[in-house]
Design brief:
About 50% of the residues lie in helices and about 10% in strands. The chain is mostly helical and about 550 residues long.
């Protein structure tokens, strides 16, 4: 039995959610006519009516993990594709609040997104991208390329105008009444009067119109509507990019035309998935497999939104932490609602480093459930770092250092053989720590003076450090800190002892293992920090 087969058998028992999803997809394909030979299509969707947010990235990252798990389980015997589909022919219905040139954009409402000028070009068309959609598409692709995803990018505008969707659009016309019967019971009375699965592109204005159809000709492949401004009856083919489907109908049409086998969606789209699935069946297609993930929330517990620009952007995360830490955040608990703001970054970084360091010590059956296996498509480069990201942040705080070289001087105390050349990942973390501290930690730091009980304990700690061995390890130093707390009034409240250390010396309520901090920062330097805290200089 080959190693590959052994590994495939291990993967068959893996508990990680991408394998669970892949197994469900395999069962679906086993029941599908011609499923054994079909190239398996994974799809993600993006609406470029606003800047790509981190949830869009998350969908691609998670789908890529399922795709890789599928390829492992099928031992590479099935061809797969990942299509990232941009709905860029949709009408521009609302000006996002987080882009420039708002007034200019307001003049292009209802135009296809690929016909709305790029607001980042100044609105003069002399620079920037061809359109707002082209700008957003390029921005999304840049992120996906930066993470090394293997995907194919599809533009709705190109798909409609090239004729790729024509055959399925004609099917939609043929089952028009069935589609209306699926959608109309789910919308209000007023909307029922104007609804149509087809949105004609007005030949006079270029706008994507939301108007009812007054006639249909299946044989000719046309629909007829009334121009809402002139009152003229207009007959237009549904092919060649002359109409755009309403999005639930569009989603079903896309699944059918492209033969999509797997697509996940947010929990808020469960009803839409159900309706699109019904339309897909009416078109003679089979709805894809997939699951509904929970939403990302901003610091106020509100759903992140492209138009609001709330939460954290992909660019912002990558300013302060590694791409891998973001991938880990997407991997963990996809069916649980999670806060997506700056304060989650340090934890995500250190959790990624912890999983990465464990990988090399694990047996194969454990490795395939390790998140880093999925983040690195089965081949993580095992790295163990002597310093955590949280510890680096506190080192920046205590040393007030803003130069990587200065911080490396401290790091070498704990790891003499480490250097930017031997530990490039750690060198990256040093840069991230400086930027993160300056932006988010420094403005919130609040030092306080110690209570009398805390003062006596800190003075005792200062004295005890005099007797610490010159080569004391982090564990030995941690023991000293513990013993001072136990013998100086904090035996039953050690948590309060460490909280006092952090608040008086670091200006925050939580911190790293203080023994590790002393080993990194230095015994003499820590004693000087204690003296400043006792003298009230830090609080001042």
């Amino acid at each position: 039995m080959s190693d590959a087969l052994n590994f495939a058998e291990l993967a068959g028992k893996a508990r990680a959610w991408p394998f669970e999803e892949a197994r469900r997809l395999i069962k679906r394909l086993e029941k599908s006519p011609g499923g054994a030979d079909k190239t398996v299509i994974f799809e993600t969707g993006y609406g470029p009516s606003g800047l790509p947010h981190i949830g869009t990235f998350g969908e691609v990252a998670r789908t890529s993990m399922v795709r890789h798990a599928f390829e492992v389980l099928t031992e590479g015997q099935r061809k797969t594709r990942l299509i990232c589909f941009s709905d860029d022919m949709d009408g521009f219905r609302k000006v996002p609040g987080n882009v420039p040139n708002q007034e200019m954009l307001g003049q292009y409402l209802d135009m296809p997104l690929t016909k709305v000028p790029d607001p980042f070009s100044g609105g003069d068309g002399a620079s920037g991208h061809e359109s707002f959609a082209h700008h957003n598409n390029a921005r999304l692709r840049k992120f996906l390329d930066q993470f090394g995803f293997e995907y194919e990018f599809f533009s709705a505008t190109d798909c409609y105008q090239s004729g790729m969707m024509d055959e399925t659009l004609l099917k939609m016309l043929a089952v028009y009444d069935k589609v209306m019967g699926i959608i109309l019971p789910t919308i209000g009375e007023a909307r029922q009067k104007t609804y149509s699965p087809f949105l004609p592109v007005c030949p006079r204005t270029g706008k994507v119109l939301q108007v009812p159809m007054i006639a249909r000709d299946v044989a000719a492949g046309t629909v007829t509507y009334v121009d809402p401004e002139t009152g003229d009856e207009i007959t237009t083919p549904v092919t060649g990019g002359r109409v755009k489907c309403q999005w639930k109908a569009d989603w079903a049409m896309r699944w059918t035309a492209l033969g999509v086998d797997y697509e996940m969606a947010g929990k808020d789209l469960i009803e839409s998935v159900n309706l699109s699935s019904k339309i897909c069946r009416a078109l003679g297609g089979a709805p894809p497999e997939g699951f509904n993930y929970e939403l990302f929330l901003d610091e106020n517990g509100e759903k992140i939104s492209k138009s609001k620009g709330n939460g954290i952007t992909i660019e912002e995360w990558l300013e302060y932490a590694s791409p891998q830490s973001l991938s880990l955040y997407m991997f963990q608990k996809p069916k649980s609602a999670k806060k997506l703001h700056f304060d989650v970054i340090p934890k995500a970084v250190d959790e990624y480093l912890t999983f990465l360091s464990k990988f090399g010590q694990e047996t194969p059956d454990k490795q395939i459930d390790n998140p880093t296996w999925h983040i690195h498509t089965g081949s993580p480069e095992v790295t163990e770092l002597p310093v955590s990201f949280a510890l680096l942040l506190n080192l920046v705080s205590a040393s007030n250092a803003h130069d990587k070289a200065v911080l490396w001087g401290f790091i070498k105390r704990m790891a003499p053989d480490a250097s930017p050349e031997t530990h490039p990942l750690l060198d990256e973390l040093v840069g991230y720590a400086i930027r993160y501290f300056d932006t988010f930690v420094k403005p919130t730091k609040t030092f306080r003076a110690p209570t009398d009980e805390e003062r006596a304990a800190l003075e005792a700690l200062d004295v005890a450090l005099n007797d610490a061995p010159t080569d004391a390890t982090a564990e030995q130093l941690q023991t000293i800190v513990f013993e001072i707390g136990k013998t100086r009034g904090f035996a039953d409240k050690l948590r309060d002892w460490f909280k006092a250390i952090y608040e008086v010396l670091l200006g925050q309520s939580q911190g790293p293992r203080f023994g590790s901090f002393i080993a990194l920062y230095g015994v003499v330097e820590t004693q000087a920090l204690i003296k400043k805290g006792l003298a009230g200089e830090l609080a001042t």
